[in-house]
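User:
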Amino acid sequence: MKIAKPHLKIFTYGLIPAIFLLFFACQTEQEIRDNKYEEFLTQAHANGQFNGNALILKDGKIEFQGSFGIGNIDPVDPLNLNSIFRLGSVSKQFTAMGIMKLKENGKLTYDQDVRDFIPELPYAGITIRHLLNHVSGLPNYTRLMMKNWKTDLKFDDPERFISGNNDIIKMLAEKKPAINFKPLEKWEYSNTGYVLLASIVAQTSGMPFEKYLQEQIFEPAKMSNTVVYNYISGSDSQMANRVYGFSVGLNGTDLISSDSHYLNPAQGDGGIYSTLDDLLKWDRILYDNMFISEETKEEAFTPAILNNGDTTSYGFGWFIDKSSTGKKVVRHGGRWVGFRAYIYREIEENNCIIILTNNSSRYLRSVVELLKNILHNQAYEFPKLAISETIGEVVMNKGANAAIEQYKKLKSNKPDEYDFAENQLNRLGYQLMQLDRVDEAIEIFRLNKEEFPQSANTYDSFGDALLASGDTTQSIINFKKALAMDSTFSATKEKIKDIEANTMSNIK
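Assistant: Predicted structure:
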């Protein structure tokens, strides 16, 4: 399927009639900002940088909301303000709220050992608070499952779909992967922790996680279009306005469905679908004490303190930050197969930005930052174009050498128009690997290593491509280089261990 040219609004600049200037001068600040939001998001959509819904709240009042793009590629359907999107990790704040409600009801305490609820876990001394704050040291379950779950089946085989959190817990109990660090030694984002929290909610409440959130949060909040989607027993009829994720092919034109993944049934770290309006209700509720006390709420918006005294930037299901005016911000993004979401709350100023997308947008953070500029009457520029998309097309049509030549030419001649960040080439390399174009991926990763020689991640990614090509000798050299540069690369340690174990097995 090819991308259809969107209908664009044309904004003409130059000589402006005096009557128009008079009209413009009479506009309120809000009206001017509203026009800027519309102009920016319309153009961003035309540039291929935004496909989704947006809502901006200022001083507690809706300043702008709009839909830009399509909700499905087969058939092509336009988005609307009632479209239901997958939230990804934005779901974590609802999991945290479930735990906080149970704590206030005397069903648990934050400092209880997780094994009080899940005794089969092979990890002692990890508490609920550690999970909430991402300071447990638990490894991310996604790599564990990818490595061990029904690997004899194809990646997209429906039979490979897991049945949910119980299977993740069973795998943790059986494989006993080592923790990355002792609790409170470091901060490290871990989806595993929030999967375990969802299971604790279910066990403590005596009802399925999705039912608990529905009865205790969504229904009281009148969030009628918000659900924890059960991929095992659920059906799309539960969400009449659900949209589907998609991505744009490396050739820049083909639209590819990106909605299904065998880890979709996991709950707690993600799995919630919602709308702009329901998330607006959620934002409003967080200003009162409908669900929890003010004291408990403040604890959720307070960062954890590590053993060495360092302050993290994470509370209970929220990142904690400062706005451009120095006021407190709580925020969280979410990303999962085809979807990106973001909620940004300036809680002292009563401002909020909610973004929901369904096309794997790599521009989401840039879009949010620029909307913040408009919100605060600051100048803004359109996000730089992704160099990965530009040279991705060249790779597909002319090969890696031509793409590298184009990269160097654009970097020399148009350095301000394109984003030449390390993650650009890294993303392109993995995209090529997914397409089984490993040789080309190797060359792109090699270029990234040359461009960013001080980055451990470039060596790790280069090692992944070499390993995929069968070159274990060079892959392990690069993995060890990455680990020497950054000892926190726990996944890299596992890869080295796996290669060495397989080598010894083959010798025997």
